[in-house]
Amino acid sequence: MQKKRLIMAGGTLISALGIGYFMQSTQAPSAPQKISTAGVTGGVAQPAPEAMAKDTDSPDDTSVDLGDVTLTSAAPATPDTPVVAELPTQSVVEAALEEKVVAVEPETPSEQTERTCEYELTAATEAAAMVRLSLSAPCMSDQRFTLHHNGMMINEVTDATGAAEFTVPALSENAIFVVAFPNGEGAVANAKVSSLAYYDRAVVQWRGASGMQIHALEFGAEYGADGHVSSEAARDQSVAALGQGGFMTRHGVAELDDALMAEVYTFPTGVMKRDGDVALRVEAEVTAANCGRDVEAQSIQKEADGTLKSQDLVLAMPDCNAIGDFLVLNNLLNDLKIAAK
What we know:
Layout: E1 5-8, E2 34-36, E3 120-126, E4 130-136, E5 144-149, E6 152-157, E7 163-169, E8 174-180, E9 186-192, E10 200-207, E11 212-218, E12 228-229, H1 237-241, E13 247-251, E14 260-267, E15 276-285, E16 294-302, E17 308-316, E18 326-329, E19 336-338
Parallel strand pairs: 1-18, 2-17
Antiparallel strand pairs: 3-4, 4-7, 5-6, 5-8, 8-9, 10-14, 10-16, 11-12, 11-15, 13-14, 15-18, 15-19, 16-17
Protein backbone atom coordinates (compact mmCIF):
# COMPACT_ATOMS: atom_id res chain seq x y z
CA MET A 1 0.00 0.00 0.00
CA GLN A 2 1.41 3.38 -0.92
CA LYS A 3 2.06 5.53 2.12
CA LYS A 4 0.12 8.80 2.27
CA ARG A 5 0.50 11.83 4.47
CA LEU A 6 -2.69 13.54 5.52
CA ILE A 7 -2.07 17.16 6.51
CA MET A 8 -4.02 18.33 9.55
CA ALA A 9 -4.49 21.90 10.73
CA GLY A 10 -3.17 21.32 14.21
CA GLY A 11 -3.37 24.98 15.19
CA THR A 12 -7.16 24.93 15.44
CA LEU A 13 -7.45 21.41 16.78
CA ILE A 14 -5.04 21.29 19.72
CA SER A 15 -5.71 22.72 23.14
CA ALA A 16 -2.86 24.04 25.28
CA LEU A 17 -2.91 22.69 28.81
CA GLY A 18 -0.34 22.71 31.61
CA ILE A 19 2.92 20.82 31.63
CA GLY A 20 1.62 18.95 34.66
CA TYR A 21 -0.66 16.71 32.52
CA PHE A 22 1.84 13.95 32.16
CA MET A 23 2.74 14.19 35.84
CA GLN A 24 -0.69 12.62 36.42
CA SER A 25 0.50 9.42 34.84
CA THR A 26 -2.52 7.37 35.81
CA GLN A 27 -5.17 9.86 34.72
CA ALA A 28 -6.39 11.11 31.40
CA PRO A 29 -5.56 14.73 30.41
CA SER A 30 -7.87 17.47 31.61
CA ALA A 31 -10.36 17.76 28.77
CA PRO A 32 -7.89 17.99 25.88
CA GLN A 33 -9.19 18.78 22.42
CA LYS A 34 -10.05 15.58 20.53
CA ILE A 35 -8.94 15.57 16.92
CA SER A 36 -11.07 13.44 14.67
CA THR A 37 -9.56 12.26 11.41
CA ALA A 38 -12.88 11.25 9.90
CA GLY A 39 -13.26 12.77 6.47
CA VAL A 40 -9.68 14.07 6.25
CA THR A 41 -8.63 14.39 2.67
CA GLY A 42 -5.19 14.37 1.18
CA GLY A 43 -3.30 17.32 2.15
CA VAL A 44 11.29 8.50 46.54
CA ALA A 45 11.63 6.81 51.43
CA GLN A 46 12.71 3.72 52.93
CA PRO A 47 11.17 0.27 52.47
CA ALA A 48 9.07 -1.41 55.11
CA PRO A 49 11.11 -3.48 57.59
CA GLU A 50 11.51 -7.11 56.73
CA ALA A 51 11.24 -9.38 59.73
CA MET A 52 14.22 -11.65 59.90
CA ALA A 53 12.99 -14.48 62.13
CA LYS A 54 15.82 -16.27 63.91
CA ASP A 55 15.79 -20.04 63.30
CA THR A 56 16.37 -22.06 66.49
CA ASP A 57 17.39 -25.70 66.17
CA SER A 58 15.78 -28.22 68.51
CA PRO A 59 18.10 -29.27 71.38
CA ASP A 60 20.16 -32.43 70.89
CA ASP A 61 18.49 -35.65 72.06
CA THR A 62 19.73 -36.56 75.56
CA SER A 63 19.24 -39.98 77.24
CA VAL A 64 20.48 -41.79 80.35
CA ASP A 65 21.21 -45.57 80.18
CA LEU A 66 20.24 -47.45 83.29
CA GLY A 67 21.37 -50.84 81.99
CA ASP A 68 24.51 -50.94 84.14
CA VAL A 69 22.73 -50.80 87.52
CA THR A 70 24.24 -53.38 89.96
CA LEU A 71 21.78 -55.64 91.72
CA THR A 72 22.29 -56.18 95.52
CA SER A 73 20.87 -58.57 98.16
CA ALA A 74 20.39 -58.56 101.93
CA ALA A 75 23.34 -59.46 104.23
CA PRO A 76 23.93 -63.25 104.50
CA ALA A 77 22.74 -65.21 107.57
CA THR A 78 25.12 -67.03 109.93
CA PRO A 79 27.01 -69.97 108.46
CA ASP A 80 25.00 -72.45 110.49
CA THR A 81 21.79 -71.41 108.78
CA PRO A 82 22.51 -70.80 105.18
CA VAL A 83 19.97 -68.61 103.46
CA VAL A 84 19.59 -68.30 99.78
CA ALA A 85 19.28 -64.69 98.76
CA GLU A 86 16.28 -63.99 96.59
CA LEU A 87 16.66 -61.77 93.56
CA PRO A 88 14.02 -59.14 92.92
CA THR A 89 11.13 -60.58 91.01
CA GLN A 90 10.52 -57.34 89.10
CA SER A 91 12.73 -56.95 86.09
CA VAL A 92 14.85 -53.87 85.62
CA VAL A 93 13.70 -51.66 82.72
CA GLU A 94 15.97 -49.34 80.83
CA ALA A 95 14.65 -45.78 80.78
CA ALA A 96 15.52 -42.61 78.93
CA LEU A 97 14.68 -39.00 79.52
CA GLU A 98 11.67 -37.84 77.50
CA GLU A 99 12.49 -35.76 74.39
CA LYS A 100 11.14 -32.23 74.54
CA VAL A 101 11.10 -29.64 71.76
CA VAL A 102 11.77 -26.15 73.02
CA ALA A 103 9.70 -23.53 71.22
CA VAL A 104 11.24 -20.08 70.79
CA GLU A 105 8.86 -17.15 70.76
CA PRO A 106 9.24 -14.94 67.63
CA GLU A 107 10.93 -11.63 68.06
CA THR A 108 8.81 -8.57 68.45
CA PRO A 109 9.01 -5.98 65.65
CA SER A 110 11.25 -3.80 67.79
CA GLU A 111 13.70 -6.69 68.08
CA GLN A 112 13.72 -7.55 64.41
CA THR A 113 16.60 -6.47 62.22
CA GLU A 114 15.50 -4.03 59.55
CA ARG A 115 16.94 -4.30 56.04
CA THR A 116 17.13 -0.85 54.53
CA CYS A 117 17.36 0.06 50.83
CA GLU A 118 19.46 3.02 49.80
CA TYR A 119 18.23 4.86 46.68
CA GLU A 120 20.87 6.98 44.97
CA LEU A 121 20.58 9.03 41.77
CA THR A 122 23.50 11.01 40.36
CA ALA A 123 23.58 13.40 37.39
CA ALA A 124 26.53 14.38 35.18
CA THR A 125 26.33 16.90 32.34
CA GLU A 126 27.40 15.96 28.83
CA ALA A 127 27.79 17.73 25.49
CA ALA A 128 24.78 19.45 23.87
CA ALA A 129 23.00 20.04 27.20
CA MET A 130 22.47 16.33 27.82
CA VAL A 131 22.62 14.74 31.28
CA ARG A 132 23.84 11.25 32.19
CA LEU A 133 21.81 9.75 35.05
CA SER A 134 23.02 6.83 37.18
CA LEU A 135 20.58 5.10 39.52
CA SER A 136 21.39 2.62 42.28
CA ALA A 137 18.57 0.85 44.14
CA PRO A 138 19.85 -2.58 45.28
CA CYS A 139 16.47 -3.79 46.53
CA MET A 140 14.73 -2.89 43.23
CA SER A 141 16.17 -5.36 40.74
CA ASP A 142 14.45 -5.63 37.35
CA GLN A 143 11.92 -2.96 38.32
CA ARG A 144 10.12 -0.44 36.15
CA PHE A 145 10.34 3.20 37.23
CA THR A 146 9.40 6.64 35.93
CA LEU A 147 11.74 9.57 35.40
CA HIS A 148 10.18 13.04 35.86
CA HIS A 149 11.85 16.20 34.55
CA ASN A 150 10.05 19.49 33.87
CA GLY A 151 6.89 17.76 32.67
CA MET A 152 8.71 15.12 30.63
CA MET A 153 8.05 11.56 31.81
CA ILE A 154 9.62 8.33 30.58
CA ASN A 155 9.74 4.73 31.80
CA GLU A 156 13.03 2.91 32.36
CA VAL A 157 13.94 -0.42 34.02
CA THR A 158 16.66 -1.37 36.52
CA ASP A 159 18.95 -4.33 35.88
CA ALA A 160 19.43 -7.43 38.05
CA THR A 161 21.51 -5.41 40.54
CA GLY A 162 18.95 -2.62 40.84
CA ALA A 163 21.02 -0.20 38.74
CA ALA A 164 20.21 1.85 35.64
CA GLU A 165 22.16 4.36 33.55
CA PHE A 166 20.76 6.48 30.73
CA THR A 167 21.08 9.90 29.08
CA VAL A 168 18.29 12.46 28.85
CA PRO A 169 18.00 16.04 27.56
CA ALA A 170 17.88 18.85 30.08
CA LEU A 171 14.88 21.18 29.80
CA SER A 172 16.10 23.76 32.33
CA GLU A 173 19.49 25.11 33.35
CA ASN A 174 18.89 24.20 37.00
CA ALA A 175 17.70 20.72 36.13
CA ILE A 176 15.99 18.52 38.71
CA PHE A 177 15.44 14.82 37.97
CA VAL A 178 13.11 12.61 40.02
CA VAL A 179 13.00 8.81 39.85
CA ALA A 180 9.83 7.19 41.22
CA PHE A 181 9.05 3.49 41.65
CA PRO A 182 5.46 2.16 41.73
CA ASN A 183 5.67 1.79 45.53
CA GLY A 184 6.20 5.54 45.89
CA GLU A 185 9.89 5.36 46.75
CA GLY A 186 12.67 6.89 44.68
CA ALA A 187 15.49 9.40 44.47
CA VAL A 188 16.29 12.93 43.30
CA ALA A 189 19.30 14.48 41.55
CA ASN A 190 20.06 17.89 40.09
CA ALA A 191 22.52 19.31 37.61
CA LYS A 192 23.60 22.77 36.47
CA VAL A 193 23.30 22.78 32.66
CA SER A 194 24.57 26.20 31.62
CA SER A 195 25.01 25.22 27.97
CA LEU A 196 21.23 24.83 27.51
CA ALA A 197 21.02 28.53 26.62
CA TYR A 198 22.59 27.73 23.23
CA TYR A 199 20.00 25.10 22.25
CA ASP A 200 16.38 24.94 21.17
CA ARG A 201 14.63 21.78 22.24
CA ALA A 202 11.29 20.21 21.28
CA VAL A 203 9.68 17.18 22.98
CA VAL A 204 6.77 14.96 21.98
CA GLN A 205 5.77 12.34 24.52
CA TRP A 206 3.08 9.67 24.64
CA ARG A 207 1.91 6.48 26.31
CA GLY A 208 1.87 3.09 24.56
CA ALA A 209 2.04 2.43 20.82
CA SER A 210 1.11 5.85 19.44
CA GLY A 211 3.13 5.85 16.23
CA MET A 212 4.25 9.41 17.05
CA GLN A 213 7.51 10.84 15.68
CA ILE A 214 9.16 14.21 15.07
CA HIS A 215 10.54 15.25 11.69
CA ALA A 216 12.85 18.29 11.46
CA LEU A 217 13.46 19.79 8.02
CA GLU A 218 16.53 21.99 8.39
CA PHE A 219 16.99 24.96 6.03
CA GLY A 220 14.39 23.84 3.50
CA ALA A 221 15.42 20.17 3.32
CA GLU A 222 12.98 17.73 1.74
CA TYR A 223 11.95 14.40 3.22
CA GLY A 224 14.77 11.89 2.85
CA ALA A 225 17.38 14.52 1.95
CA ASP A 226 20.37 15.69 3.93
CA GLY A 227 18.97 18.00 6.57
CA HIS A 228 15.89 15.84 7.24
CA VAL A 229 16.37 14.69 10.85
CA SER A 230 14.15 11.95 12.32
CA SER A 231 14.45 8.78 14.39
CA GLU A 232 15.59 7.02 11.21
CA ALA A 233 18.26 9.66 10.55
CA ALA A 234 18.89 10.80 14.10
CA ARG A 235 22.54 11.99 14.06
CA ASP A 236 24.19 12.34 17.49
CA GLN A 237 24.90 15.07 20.01
CA SER A 238 28.36 15.80 18.64
CA VAL A 239 26.77 17.34 15.51
CA ALA A 240 24.92 19.88 17.65
CA ALA A 241 27.88 20.47 19.96
CA LEU A 242 29.94 21.47 16.92
CA GLY A 243 27.18 23.75 15.63
CA GLN A 244 26.60 21.71 12.48
CA GLY A 245 22.91 20.88 12.92
CA GLY A 246 20.33 19.23 15.11
CA PHE A 247 19.90 15.68 16.38
CA MET A 248 17.06 13.43 17.55
CA THR A 249 16.86 11.18 20.62
CA ARG A 250 14.20 8.69 21.74
CA HIS A 251 13.70 7.84 25.41
CA GLY A 252 11.87 5.09 27.32
CA VAL A 253 11.58 1.31 27.04
CA ALA A 254 9.11 0.54 24.27
CA GLU A 255 8.89 -3.13 25.26
CA LEU A 256 7.08 -2.26 28.50
CA ASP A 257 3.29 -2.43 28.55
CA ASP A 258 1.74 1.01 28.13
CA ALA A 259 5.21 2.59 28.35
CA LEU A 260 5.78 6.32 28.71
CA MET A 261 7.95 7.34 25.76
CA ALA A 262 9.41 10.60 24.43
CA GLU A 263 11.20 11.85 21.34
CA VAL A 264 13.31 15.01 21.54
CA TYR A 265 14.80 17.22 18.82
CA THR A 266 17.72 19.48 19.78
CA PHE A 267 19.11 22.29 17.60
CA PRO A 268 22.16 24.51 18.37
CA THR A 269 20.47 27.83 17.62
CA GLY A 270 22.95 29.85 19.67
CA VAL A 271 26.05 28.80 17.72
CA MET A 272 24.80 28.45 14.11
CA LYS A 273 26.55 30.55 11.49
CA ARG A 274 23.72 30.26 9.00
CA ASP A 275 20.38 32.00 8.62
CA GLY A 276 17.22 30.09 7.89
CA ASP A 277 14.33 28.08 9.27
CA VAL A 278 13.87 24.63 10.72
CA ALA A 279 10.40 23.25 10.04
CA LEU A 280 9.15 20.92 12.78
CA ARG A 281 6.49 18.34 11.94
CA VAL A 282 4.86 15.77 14.21
CA GLU A 283 3.54 12.68 12.47
CA ALA A 284 1.50 9.73 13.66
CA GLU A 285 1.81 6.56 11.63
CA VAL A 286 -1.30 4.39 11.42
CA THR A 287 -0.31 0.93 12.68
CA ALA A 288 -2.04 -2.28 13.70
CA ALA A 289 -1.47 -1.27 17.34
CA ASN A 290 -3.21 2.14 17.13
CA CYS A 291 -5.67 2.01 14.21
CA GLY A 292 -9.23 2.85 15.16
CA ARG A 293 -8.15 4.08 18.60
CA ASP A 294 -7.61 7.41 20.34
CA VAL A 295 -3.96 8.34 20.83
CA GLU A 296 -2.93 10.70 23.66
CA ALA A 297 0.23 12.80 23.38
CA GLN A 298 1.82 16.02 24.60
CA SER A 299 4.37 18.44 23.22
CA ILE A 300 6.85 20.48 25.28
CA GLN A 301 8.96 23.15 23.60
CA LYS A 302 11.68 25.35 25.06
CA GLU A 303 11.12 28.96 24.02
CA ALA A 304 13.89 31.47 23.27
CA ASP A 305 13.57 32.99 26.77
CA GLY A 306 13.96 29.59 28.41
CA THR A 307 10.30 29.09 29.26
CA LEU A 308 8.53 25.84 28.37
CA LYS A 309 5.35 25.73 26.32
CA SER A 310 3.17 22.60 26.33
CA GLN A 311 0.17 21.36 24.37
CA ASP A 312 -1.93 18.24 24.94
CA LEU A 313 -3.89 16.37 22.31
CA VAL A 314 -6.10 13.35 21.76
CA LEU A 315 -5.95 12.10 18.20
CA ALA A 316 -8.61 9.77 16.77
CA MET A 317 -6.68 7.43 14.47
CA PRO A 318 -8.22 6.19 11.21
CA ASP A 319 -9.56 2.68 10.75
CA CYS A 320 -7.19 -0.19 10.15
CA ASN A 321 -7.61 -0.05 6.37
CA ALA A 322 -5.33 3.03 6.56
CA ILE A 323 -2.37 1.14 8.08
CA GLY A 324 0.85 2.58 6.70
CA ASP A 325 -0.49 6.09 6.22
CA PHE A 326 0.65 9.09 8.26
CA LEU A 327 -1.22 11.93 9.92
CA VAL A 328 0.84 15.13 9.79
CA LEU A 329 0.32 17.66 12.62
CA ASN A 330 1.86 20.86 11.33
CA ASN A 331 1.35 23.21 14.27
CA LEU A 332 1.92 21.07 17.34
CA LEU A 333 5.49 22.44 17.44
CA ASN A 334 6.66 25.89 16.39
CA ASP A 335 9.21 26.17 13.59
CA LEU A 336 12.63 27.55 14.53
CA LYS A 337 13.91 30.84 13.17
CA ILE A 338 17.70 30.82 12.93
CA ALA A 339 19.80 33.98 12.77
CA ALA A 340 23.53 33.59 12.12
CA LYS A 341 25.78 34.41 15.09
